[in-house]
Amino acid sequence: MNQYLATAIAAARAAGGRQRQSYEQTHLIEFKGEINLVTEVDKACEELIVSAIRTAYPDHDIIAEEEDYARRGSSSVWIIDPLDGTTNYAHGFPWFCVSIALEQEGEVVLGVIYQPFTDELFTATKGGGAWLNGRPIRVSQRSPLRSCLLATGFPYDRTPDNENNFAHFYNFQFTARAIRRAGSAALDLACVAAGRLDGYWECKLNPWDVAAGSLIVREAGGRVSGYGGETYDIRNHRIVASNGLIHDEILAVLAQKEGGR
Ligand code: IPD
Ligand code: CA
Ligand code: CA
Prior knowledge:
The chain is an alpha+beta fold and 261 residues long. The chain is built from 7 helices and 14 strands. A 7-stranded mixed β-sheet has the order 3-4-5-6-7-8-9, sandwiched between helices. The mean pLDDT is 94.
C-alpha cells in the first residue's frame, strides 16, 4: 500500500504543480454542457496522472473524468479527478484540487487529495487513519445541527426537478448555522475530515468526485452514507458525509419534502 500511496502522492503533486503554474494564465475553455467547463489544464493533468499510474502499474484499470480508458479487467482500479473545481480554476477562484483514489475488489483503499494553492495534502489508506501534510486529522465534535457549518454543491444540468438540490439547500438554511458552496466536492469532503466543516451533502456526483474524499472522511472518524442512511457506494450519486454526531439530523432534513416548510 505504501508504494501505491507514494505513486498517488507524486502524481497528485505533479498535477497540482501544473495547476499552480498555469493558474494566472488565460485558459482554453471548452463546454461539456451549458455550464460544465473543461480547460486544457484538466486534460494535461489527467494525462500526467494517467501516465504515472500506467508506468507504475500497467495492468491496473483507470477511471478518470476526461477520457474513457479501455478496461483490462483488473481488480485494482484508479479513480481520478485531475482537477476538481474546474469552474473555480477557470475563473481564478483559488479553490480546486487533484483527487486520486485506488479501489481494490470494489472497495476504496487509498485516497489522496492535493490542494495546490494551500499546498495541503490529504491522504488516507483503509485502516491507516487520515492525514493532512503528515499530521493525523479528525472530524469535528460539533453538534447539534443548528450549531454546524455545512457544505453542498449543485449539479451542472440545473433541471427543475427534485434533484436540483435547491429545496434541500432552502431547508438547511433554516436548520444549520450556515452553508457553503465552495465548488469542489473533493475539498468539501477533505474539510469534513479535517473538522473544518461539520457535514456535507450533494447529489449527481461521479465516482471521481468522491472516491478519495469519502475514504478520508471515514478514516478521520466520520460517517458517510447515501441520503437514506444506506451504506455508501461511490457509484451512488447522492452522498452525505459528516462528523457522525449530526448525521441523523442531516438525513432527517433530506427526508423533508421539497420546500419542506
Ligand atoms: C464539480 C465540483 C463541484 C460539484 C460538481 C462537480 P468538477 O467537479 O466538485 O463542487 O458541485 O457537481 O462536478 O467538474 O469541477 O471536476
Ligand atoms: Ca469533480
Ligand atoms: Ca474535474
